[in-house]
Amino acid sequence: METIIAVVLVTAAAVLVAWPFFGRQSAPAPGEIQLSPLQRQKLEAYAAIKEAEFDYQMGKLTAVDFNALRERYTQQALAAIAALESAQARRSAATPRGTESRKPGRIAYCPSCGHNLTARANFCHGCGQSLKAIKETAG
C-alpha cells in the first residue's frame, strides 16, 4: 500500500514539474517585442562578437581565432542588416506617399544601433541611447 502511495506521489510531482514544458504556448506579453528572423540573426551576431571579445580578453582565444570569429560574425551581422534594409526599402516603395501611419515624434528603430523600440520608449533597450532629443527634432 505504501508503495502505491509513493508511486502516485512521485507521478504527481513529475506531472507538475513537466506541465509547463508540454502546455500550450502563451501569447507574447503586451510590451514584448516580436523580432523577425533577420533582426534575431543580427542581434545574435552582435552577441557572438561581444562574447568573442570577452573570451579574447580573458585569454581563452588566440588573436588569430578571435579575428576569424569576429570576421565571421561581422559578415553575418552585415548580411542581416543588408537584408533588413532591402526589406525596408521594398516596404517603403510599396507604400504610397502620404499613407504612412507614422505619428510625428514616434521612432520605430534606434538611430544608433537599429534596435526595435516600443511606442513610449525614452531610451533604447539595446544601447541605452536617449531618444528624447531625437523625438523632439522629429516631432
Report what the structure shows.
This protein has 139 residues and is mainly α. Among the domains are: 35-92; 105-139, no CATH class. It is 58% helix and 0% strand. The protein has four helices and no strands. The radius of gyration is 23 Å and the shape is extended. The relative contact order is 0.08.
Structural class: mainly alpha
Mean pLDDT over the residues = 81
Q: Cα distance, first to last residue?
A: 75 Å
Give the strand content.
Answer: under 5%
Task: Give the beta-strand count.
Answer: 0
Order of helices and strands: HHHH
What is the number of helical segments per DSSP (H or I, 4+ residues)? 4
Low-confidence stretches: none
How much helical structure, as a percent, in the residues? 55-70%
Any idea what the shape is? extended
Q: Major sheet, described briefly? A: none
Radius of gyration: 23 Å
Strand and helix map with partners:
Elements: H1 2-22, H2 37-57, H3 63-94, H4 132-138
Helix pairs in contact: 2-3
Main attributes?
mainly alpha; extended; 0% strand
Structure in a nutshell:
The protein is mainly alpha-helical. The protein is built from four helices and no strands. Among the domains are: 35-92; 105-139, no CATH class.
